[in-house]
Design a protein that fits this description.
mainly alpha, about 5% strand
Length: about 130
């Protein structure tokens, strides 16, 4: 399968495929004409790479996972452990972002001149009517 065919079948750019190959995630041979020739199963490998990226894995992490995925030993257990670790990392990031969002909201309430002006008018109208 030539790179253009693989690009079409896998739904990724040729540049992405070249990057995956450079990083050792996929392999090709060279035809007599010098073109890259990929095995048919590369479509499935690229799908795994794309899914891992969609799950938040960086290419470096995928590189570390790929031998475990293709190795028949305890790969399912290793993969499950890695996925749990990624879920924990995402949970930590969510907690951090939630905390950041709360701090930002407090800053908006205290530092925003529009909010201060509205509050000032509301506060003064409350005191004037009493």
């Amino acid at each position: 399968m030539l790179i253009g065919e693989l690009s079409h079948e896998a739904g990724v750019s040729r540049d992405a495929l070249r990057l995956y190959e450079k990083r050792g995630l996929i392999r090709s041979s060279r035809g007599a004409n010098g073109y890259r020739v990929f095995p048919e199963e590369t479509v499935e490998v690229v799908a795994v790479i794309r899914e891992a990226q969609a799950l938040g894995f960086k290419l470096k992490e995928i590189e570390e996972l790929m031998p475990g995925i293709s190795n028949a030993g305890a790969s399912a257990e290793t993969l499950a452990e890695t996925l749990r670790a990624k879920a924990d990392e995402i949970d930590r990031r969510i907690q951090g972002l939630t905390s950041l969002r709360e701090r930002l909201s407090r800053r908006i309430e205290t530092a925003c001149p529009i909010h201060r002006a509205i509050r000032g008018n509301t506060d003064s109208s409350r005191t004037e009517g009493t």
